[in-house]
Amino acid sequence: MTFCAVIVAAGSGTRAGPGSAKQWRAVAGKPVLRWSVETLLTAGAKALVVVISPGAEADLAAALAGLDGWSFVLGGATRAASVQAGLEALADRPGDEPVLVHDAARPFLGSATIAALLAALDAGADGALPALAVTDTLKRGVPGQGVTTTTRDGLWRAQTPQAFRRSTLVAAYAAWPAGDEPTDDAQLVERAGGEVVLVPGDPRLLKLTYPEDFAMAERLAGAPRPTRMGQGFDAHRWGPGQSVWLCGVEIVHDQTLIGHSDADAGLHALTDALLGAIGEGDIGDHFPPTDPQWKGASSDRFLIHAADLVRAKGGSIVNVDVTLICERPKIKPHRAAMRERLAQLLDLPLDRVSVKATTTEGMGFTGRGEGLAAQAIAVVEV
Q1: What is the SS3 string spanning 219-251?
Q2: CATH code for 3-210?
Q3: Which of 75, 141, 287, 307 could potentially form a cystine with 147 if both were Cys, beta carbons 3.0 to 4.6 Å apart?
């Protein structure tokens, strides 16, 4: 079954962070747009129009260098205007020929999805789109206020490409109220009274919107991720007390560690290791000891903050390793609890968390019982 295609690549993609628009960025060494163009051409698209914004001609030429079988047209101020520009560029194609309208920001289009869409049109549908069932519990409300639970029965997450007979989609756009922006092309055909059916979506067909989406795309593409390592060191002196916090576990002891927060040297060292791995300074930059709000604070908060920063950069923690340096208290009886607590705080499997202890054989400030030290290493993929 012959078909043509329109790829909308005119957006600025500001939510994707600084840099070039997302359709020109690389995923696994290939521009995002090129992934879909190659798939559609391989599937047999007889005509393929890429809709771009004015001034993006050089980016387009670089992204599709060496490929034949495509053309381009300049888009409009809205997605709907850009799709119509693409359809107009296909005006010489047969009216009953299927046209697939696709967003450039969805790079992992598969041949099975294309085949399912064309089969739905061949079976008589006026339109077809891939969709995934909503599996998460849905809540309606405003952050910080009360919420209500909304049923997810019958709800689907729409993807692209969406397929229609070209004349059907052109007529639906002509009948659409001026000044009203449709959410997608299927909505136009629905409003015009056409039958739009769902075909199985593909979880890999995610839309790249935010910076962290690109990290996910690299993983889906099977590209190796850069690995970074950070190290941390912390030390606190002993003082009067009845217990000490180490690696998130309270240990009964005849002394305590002195510090502005709870003086958990293990968590402090590990927090610095995570921050160092992603180039985000040290614990003092984020939680200054001069700030009274951190007086006596649980160091759990510091570690969770560092882990959240790793994830905000699209990264993941591979493993962590903490070494406690002291003569007393004995660490071995508490080591299992420490590992479990760190695994819980970092949301890691237990076998990716290590806690060890050593002495300095009576040498130095730890050997003399003046204080305790901790060092940590963290490995992250970003």
Answers
A1: HHCCCCCCEEEEEEEEEEEEEECCEEEECCEEE
A2: 3.90.550.10
A3: 141
Orientation angle between helical segments 111-122 and 32-43, nearest 10 degrees: 50
**Residue located via tokens 């290939």:** 30
CATH number of 227-381: 3.30.1330.50
Report whether pLDDT(154) > 80: yes
Q: Which two tokens stand for residue 370?
A: 């003046």
The count of residues in the chain is 382
| Phi, psi dihedrals of residue 68, rounded to the nearest 5° | -115, 165
The 10s digit of each residue's pLDDT in 81-110 is 999 999 999 999 999 999 999 999 999 999
The single residue listed with the structure tokens 């003082």 is 239
Q: Is 193 exposed, middle or buried (0-12, 13-18, 19+ CB in 10 A)?
A: exposed
Q: Could you tell me the two tokens for 206? A: 């995610």
Q: Give me 186's structure tokens.
A: 């299927």
Any long-range contacts for 15-19 (C-beta under 8 Å, 24+ apart)?
15/209, 15/210, 16/208, 16/209, 16/210, 16/211, 16/213, 16/214, 17/210, 17/211
- 316-370: pLDDT as tens digits: 899 999 999 999 999 999 999 999 999 999 999 999 999 999 999 999 999 999 9
The pTM for the full model equals: 0.61
| DSSP symbol at 305 | H
d(CA 269, CA 353) in angstroms, rounded, equals 14
Instruction: Give the residue extent of every domain in the chain.
Output: 3-210, 227-381
Q: Hunting for tokens 């040297």 — which residue is that?
A: 265
Which amino acid would we find at residue 310?
V
pLDDT band at 21; cut points 50, 70, 90: confident
Q: Beta partners for 358?
A: 325
Sheet holding 255-257, edge to edge: 255-257, 227-240, 371-381, 316-325, 353-358
